Write a sequence for this structure.
């Protein structure tokens, strides 16, 4: 199963490291990563493979959101099919 | 990977524009629960509902979490209870209590199907069930009732229409201290659909399978935002095109959630209901969409045309996005549940008569309309008759969900809470319809019902 992690907020040191530490600890592989600045906001999108994740989706979601709170960012993880279903026929 | 603009478009729809899945509704047949002993029948109903739907709420929550899309309600619709209650001489109220108990235990938001289909006439069971509706809605909080009083094929059962005028008043009286809340859970239909996932009118029709998953989408806020982004002078072709594209995206999400829920619950997928369902929160209003098209206030001249365009474009966009579309599928105009409609009533732009006209071109009908508590029952019946005529003649579903609020007069405010919202008590026509309503009998089916 693949999921999309999105990070939105003010740019600062340690965002990628913070997120990827959680992912590596959970054995989640990063497949693709892009980052850009959108209307003065830092945005990062990661495509990850969670099929071998050592923790539940729920726990991963909670851990990422907590890291977001710590860094003052909005971090969410969603199954990639929500985007595929809406934007691809 | 999907491009980032599209990813953020989806996230923005959910986080800022109130995009949600309004409901996952499990339709469930209770036909195999029939039994001459009402206690045994009720026990079977409770047992079957709790067994079949035991994972419904959890599955909804799991999908919500994994996909990051809010799923507001998890609901159950059942076989019209009049059909199963008829197998016993006992009181159908016991079945309603079993449904209520099951709903509470499962944690679902509503359970619909305390219903009777009497468009051509009553059976003894239909009559007993309808008589018990006020008591049931008064003493339960999750059970929803509906009565189909007309169809294009059968015409309008005016005896039932008149009866429902009295039932609505009785339900309002029984729950007068809660502003007649029972009436928010009671829908009077013409051409009721058998697979509608929306409450209060959901029931699991006789042509439906054993168990099925139907999903209702929402999204007025998303459509409104899309229209706001258009150039100020955009013409109606551009407006229609924008609504179509937006409805397509919304419905794709509904289809995905429906397919996922169906797979996880191991229950066949039924339909996606492509309705624009507003909520009282600001920015989730159908009225604001109409106003965005250039109307100063919803309800002024041009509103019916604007709504016709909206309704049609939603269907055109939605129908290609889902493998099976059904239920009510169109724009909803529940007055108290729509912040823009409430404001339009408050400032005098929107009247009951205009709402009736609007129901000719959208789903469903006169929905969530608080009226003075002293409105005579024959006036309410006549309002139902008018609305049924619109449905029967136009071969579409129409419905009436009207709430006489005891102790309140036109212009006063009322609140029902939660998604039901609140608003201003609307005036009704002061002239009597008593003689008309009391004639009884059936208004014959229109000639265009003869299509064979």
């Amino acid at each position: 199963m693949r999921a999309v992690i999105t990070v939105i907020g003010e740019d600062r040191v340690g965002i990628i490291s913070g997120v990827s530490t959680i992912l590596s600890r959970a054995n989640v592989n990063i497949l693709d990563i892009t980052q850009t600045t959108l209307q003065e906001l830092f945005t990062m999108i990661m495509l990850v493979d969670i099929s071998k994740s050592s923790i539940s989706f729920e726990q991963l979601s909670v851990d990422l959101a907590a890291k977001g709170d710590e860094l003052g960012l909005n971090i969410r993880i969603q199954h990639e099919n929500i985007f595929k279903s809406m934007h691809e026929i | 990977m999907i491009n980032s603009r599209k990813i953020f478009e989806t996230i923005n729809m959910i986080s800022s524009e109130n995009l949600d899945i309004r409901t996952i509704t499990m339709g469930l047949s209770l036909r195999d629960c029939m039994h001459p002993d009402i206690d045994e029948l009720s026990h079977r109903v409770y047992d079957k509902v709790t067994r079949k739907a035991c994972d419904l709420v959890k599955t909804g929550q799991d999908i919500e979490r994994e996909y990051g899309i809010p799923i507001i309600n998890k609901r159950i619709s059942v076989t019209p209870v009049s059909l199963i209650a008829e197998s016993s001489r006992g009181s159908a109220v016991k079945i309603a209590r079993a449904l209520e108990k099951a709903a509470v235990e499962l944690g679902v938001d509503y359970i619909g199907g305390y219903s009777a289909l009497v468009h051509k006439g009553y059976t003894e069971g239909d009559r007993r069930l309808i008589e018990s509706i006020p008591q049931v809605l008064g003493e339960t909080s999750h059970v929803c009732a509906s009565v189909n009083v007309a169809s294009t094929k059968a015409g309008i059962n005016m005896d039932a229409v008149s009866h429902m005028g009295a039932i609505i008043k009785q339900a309002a009286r029984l729950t007068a201290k809660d502003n007649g809340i029972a009436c928010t859970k009671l829908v009077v239909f013409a051409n009721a659909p058998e697979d509608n996932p929306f409450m209060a009118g959901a029931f699991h029709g006789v042509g439906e399978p054993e168990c099925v998953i139907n999903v209702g989408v929402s999204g007025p806020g998303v459509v409104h935002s899309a229209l706001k982004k258009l150039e100020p002078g955009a013409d109606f072709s551009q407006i229609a095109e924008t609504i179509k594209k937006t409805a397509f995206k919304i419905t794709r999400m509904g289809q995905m959630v429906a397919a996922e829920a169906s797979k996880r619950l191991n229950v066949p997928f039924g339909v996606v209901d492509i309705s624009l369902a507003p909520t009282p929160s600001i920015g989730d209003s159908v009225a604001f969409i109409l106003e965005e098209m250039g109307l100063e206030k919803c309800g002024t001249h041009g509103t019916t045309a604007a709504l016709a365009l909206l309704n049609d474009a939603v269907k055109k966009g939605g129908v290609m996005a889902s493998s099976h579309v059904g239920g009510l599928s169109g724009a909803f105009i529940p007055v108290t549940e729509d912040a823009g409609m409430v404001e339009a009533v408050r400032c005098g732009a929107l009247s009951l008569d205009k709402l009736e006209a609007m129901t000719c071109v959208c789903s469903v009908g006169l929905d969530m309309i608080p009226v003075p508590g002293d409105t005579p029952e024959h006036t309410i019946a006549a309002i139902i008759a008018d609305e049924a005529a619109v449905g029967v003649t136009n071969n579409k579903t129409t419905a009436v969900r009207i709430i006489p609020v005891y102790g309140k007069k036109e212009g006063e405010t009322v609140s029902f809470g939660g998604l039901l919202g609140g608003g201003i008590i609307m005036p009704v026509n002061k002239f009597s319809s008593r003689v008309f309503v009391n004639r009884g009998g059936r208004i014959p089916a229109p000639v265009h019902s003869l299509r064979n």
